[in-house]
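User: Round two. Same drill as before: sequence, then structure, for each protein.

Assistant: Same drill it is. First protein:
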Amino acid sequence: MRRQVDAGVVGVLDVMNTHGPVGAIVPAAGRGQRLQGEVPKALALLDGRPLVQYALETLARVDEVQTIVVVAPEDHLESVRDLAARARLGKIAAVVPGGADRQASVARGLAALPPSAQLVLVHDGARPCVTASLVRAVAAAAARDGAATAAVPVAETVKAGRDGWVARTLDRSELYHIQTPQGFHRSLLERAHLEAARAGFRGTDDAALVERLGHRVRLVPGEPSNLKVTLPGDLEVAEALLRRPGPPLRVGLGFDTHRFADGRPLILGGVEVPHARGLAGWSDADVVVHAIMDALLGAAGCADIGQQFPPGDPAYAGARSLDLLARVRALLAERRWRAAQVDAVVMAEAPRLAPHIGAMRAAIAGVLGLDADAVNIKATTLEGMGALGREEGIAAQAVATLEPLRAAGPPR
């Protein structure tokens, strides 16, 4: 009977709280000669984006991963740094040059990883289809058992051969295709690399170095779609996998209200609207943008704006809400979502907003990377009813729709 692979996964956040921050090393320094490209494999385009970007974005949206080190070709370090900046991959702590082989490259990445990272994941930059759930599963298993690797059981018959003839048939019940990520306690991985270097031992993966020390490596169920791009045809397969139907659209609801206050400008939808009074608030009190931010965050399953940008925090005193909206957009991108459409209604007796709605739509659309017709803003009165009807303040409600970032192609 085939032996079952036991992930040994318990609550990931509990394990991370016990073992501290997780760091990730992404070896991506290979030239990819078999890929037959004009640039190193990490920068080969996959559906219009550099191959390594997919793995980096997946790692970046895993909350447990606090820092990432990329090991890149020495003559393309700036290209990788530019990629990270364009994709807003703020978790990347360093981009370092690769070594003579993969093992040497991982050792350089390990040396560049901040000391706070006591649990280390190693994931090939040429595996673009890895999922966040697999990253978390390997991290949890490594935290508990010291070492873990993603693995897929061999499904076909495997034979050993000699001189063009079958020598014997192997028992496939004990055979696995090994993938990344692989995860390790940092001290264990450092010792494994040190001992291998002293002995001149070269392993095909980091798990082999740890095995050499006599330490067991936990097998975590991998994913058949987590392929490694090696040959030109692999790019076509990876693109097909990435273009599979993704998660459905998600919808969020947001609401905000602010009292009027003397001596402040009235900012609505990123536009200064002429009026005798503005709105009270720690930031610029843009009630329209605040409602939209809450709708976007809600759709993505994130904490609301009060937790993201706490009132009273000096960092947000007088902040432009459009700048905060840009940060929400980046947060969504880390989780592989982007705004598809926004609809908001502003509830106010005064001032008259119709002349300013076009500018509001354009301002919000510009920050979210949308066409203006994907942002709709309406204004209504309360016909004198309640606090808003007595002109004590303004309220806004918004509905936002998110679409999967990867399924829709490159970010706009």
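Second protein:
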Amino acid sequence: MQQTTTEMITTMDLSAIQSALRESKLDGWLFYDHHNRDPLAYRILGIPGGHITRRWYYFVPAQGEPKKLVHRIESHKLDALPGPKNQYSSWQELESNLKSLLAGATKIAMQYSPNNAIMYVSLVDAGTVELLRSFGKDIVTSADLVSHFEAVLTEAQIATHYEAQRKLDAILDQGWQEISRRVSANSPDANEYSIVEFLQRAIEREGMVTEFGPNVSVGPNSADSHYQPTAATSKPIRKGDFLLIDIWSKLANDLTAVWYDITWTAVIGRAPTDREQHIFTTVRDARDASIARVQQSFASNTPIAGYEADDASRAVIRNAGLADFFTHRTGHNIATELHGNGAHLDNLETHDTRLILPNTCFSVEPGLYFPGEFGVRSEVNMITRPGRAEVTGRIQTELLRL
């Protein structure tokens, strides 16, 4: 079922933002938007987007009162936020007022990433950064600040993740049983897309939603890490097949709910081949190496960046001589969005230097993919706490045999 996206508006926590700025030794955080290019700004500031045809700026200093700069045609856009307001019409007036807005501040965070390394927060255009640098400002990335306000979960949100986990683990069990039943009965509904529909109905019955999918992949289709069957392309599921299911959902009717996202693999009506067993074992060990690296860091209160957790799993696969077949990051942040705005476990697609913060959730899902043959991915979710980190659901230790 396609999820309907609804804007979640919260209230800006000014004291928390300023405290984070001081801890990071920053002079302030400059929020800027035009044509709704920066959804992070609206969520963190707790204001709606809407019809934005002129540039606005909102500067939160590490200490003192925030300040606004808006166009006279859209002078009301930041009225819900605290602080005095300046207005402009001409570009010359904009530049003069913007320079005044930032007077006394030098090191300023924005939704910017050097070399576009963390593209998820690289939302400010190069020209704006150039303009600010011409004022003598040192523009630095807001990536870790964004993680703090976008990825850190409340206790209530963490509870929604565990509720989704309990329900979805049970649904996946039902799915395996239904596949076995249909295959044994030689049912015409033993195919990828029909099982997707079965799982979607079960998710809806449990009061949850999913964005699209799940991903039910037979044989060579499991070698496509983003495969999605359709009614027209669906392949039959038969005895002797290799099967991968990637499934995700969260509680419906709760904009603060957190996703649960897992992947398991199985063989149907037979034992795994030696090759399948070797590939699964390598992926499993890579997953567990990443889990252990995160747990060790949190147990010792040692900061860990996303790329370091990726390195742990990637080393296992590289040592097995299979690095070329691990073509994606090890994991992604999970929050109210399936792919959230906290640290990803990634040193392949990006060099993710963002810290994995306490009270955040993320997937750990290394995979190996052999086009024309099969692919194995083993995905669990983790939640971190001060001093500890844990896997939130069941952990697959062997290939399932249906």
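Confidence is low (pLDDT under 50) at residues 1-7.

User: Perfect.
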